[in-house]
Structures are given as structure tokens and as C-alpha cells.
Amino acid sequence: MVADPDNPLVLDILTGSSTSYSFFPDKPITQYPHAVGRNTLLIAGLQARNNARVVFSGSLDFFSDAFFNSAVQKAAPGSKRYSQTGNYELAVALSRWVFKEEGLPVSPQCHPVPSSGGKYSVQFKLPDVYGVFQFKVDYNRLGYTHLYSSTQVSVRPLQHTQYERFIPSAYPYYAGAFSMMLGLFMFSIVFLHMKEKEKSD
After folding, report:
1. Is residue 49 part of a domain?
2. Residue 91 sits in which domain range?
3. For FRET with 50, which of 40, 71, 72, 194 sits at 20 to 30 Å CA-CA?
4. How many domains are contained in the chain?
5. pLDDT per position as a tens digit, 118-156
């Protein structure tokens, strides 16, 4: 297999060595092989934009019991011999990744919440302009779940019913208005009950 290097959705899981190539084993090589070196993908993964995952393997024997239990040794003389290959661990890791095993309620697991609350937060200031703003979170990392969130917020002046009943910064104006009312009330009482002195002949 050969993957397009410009495709951001493809994950190279297992590649060939720098001296490897892929061609028909029963035919002589008459033209340059299509898959050469590390461009040869033995196992590849694909994660779509909707977080669907699929794994492509170049051989079904890779997942067989015979390959799981077979002993391996490097071709170099005096190299260490291993009783089992790493195919089993890789196959288990691939199955957990492609089926998203951690997200399935197969067996209950306790995930402790850290002391910080487990939430990422940020505080920022909007521009001093009225309008409609969109806050977007687009986290896309190869092999991980794609996170996308969009929140729309409108910034507008408050209505007169949304302000506080008494604003602390307006206390001097309140005092001026009430003192003027009190002065007018006292002036009315004095003006209404004041009698002019009678003129004497």
C-alpha cells in the first residue's frame, strides 16, 4: 500500500524498511516498483472527519495465531532470539484504537477527576464593538478524536429593564434629586402658610 502524503487523515502505523519494495513474487521485476522503501505501508489507519476509524492491513496472516506465537530473530549472526513477535501487542492496540474501546461501556472504569476540575477555560475580552461573535474550538490531531465546538454570542447594549435598580456610581445624582424634592416640599409649605402682614393706616 502507498498513502498520499498530502492526506491529513491517513495514519502511517507500520512501514517497510528503507530497502524494502513491493512487487509480484512470482514475476521478474521489469519496471520500477510502485511502493519502495518507507513509502510502503504494511498497516495504515484512516480517521474520517466524523471520527470514524478504519485500519488497512497488507496481510491477514499478521493477525493469525501462527504469527502471534512464532519465534523471531534478526538475520545478523549472534543476535538474540525472541520467543514471540510483537504482532499480538500491536493487534490489541490497533483493535482498541479502531473500536474506541475506552469509550464503550463494556467494563466500568473509574476516571478520577483532578483537583482542577478537569475543564479547560480561558478568559478574554471582546472588542468594544456591538455585533454577533462566534467562539470556535477546532482541535484536530492525527489519531485523536476531532473536537469541534461553535458558540454564537451577541453583544448589544442592555435594555433599561436589565440594569440594576440602583447604581452605586449614581448615588450623587440620587441625593441631588431627593434633596431638590425635599427643598420643593419645604418651600411649598412655607409659601402656602405664609400670611402677609396687614397694612396699618
Report:
1. yes
2. 10-74+83-103
3. 40
4. 1
5. 677 778 787 788 889 888 888 887 777 888 889 998 888
